[in-house]
Amino acid sequence: MTFKPLHDRVLVQRQESSEKTLGGIIIPDTAKEKPAEGKVIAVGDGLRKEDGTILALNVKVGDKILFAKWGGSEVTIDGKDFIIMKESDILGILN
User: Concatenated DSSP letters for 38-85?
Assistant: First the structure.
């Protein structure tokens, strides 16, 4: 893929959620919520401050993250679905 986000934006691939609950109940596709967990695929250079310096992002390619449920814009690149969001829409990094 040849896509690089600009500034403080991040390209995220949503991680699929389990089709079963812990109790064994199978969840149909129509009842599933979109997962708010994903993997960082690409990152921009960082946020440009007023004095012209660039503030580097805290996330890096390969990080597993939690993000705001309605954050970002959904896009399709090379036939795959991704989300482009600002770093501020990311809630945290999963270890």
Answer: EEEEEE-S-EEPTTS-EE--S--TT-EEEE-TT-SEEEEETTEEEEEE
Could you read off the pLDDT of 7-22 as tens digits, one per residue? 889 999 888 755 555 6
Return the residue matching tokens 């399709």.
76
| Cα 29 to Cα 21: distance, rounded to the nearest angstrom | 13
pLDDT digits (tens, 9 = 90+) for 13-71: 888 755 555 666 766 655 455 668 899 999 999 888 889 899 888 899 999 999 887 77
Topology of the domain covering 9-16+26-94:
10 Kd Chaperonin, Protein Cpn10; Chain O (2.30.33)
Q: How far apart are CA 94 and CA 91, in angstroms?
A: 10
Which pTM value belongs to this model? 0.76
Q: State whether residue 92 is helix, strand or coil.
A: strand
How is the chain split into domains, by residue range?
A: 9-16+26-94
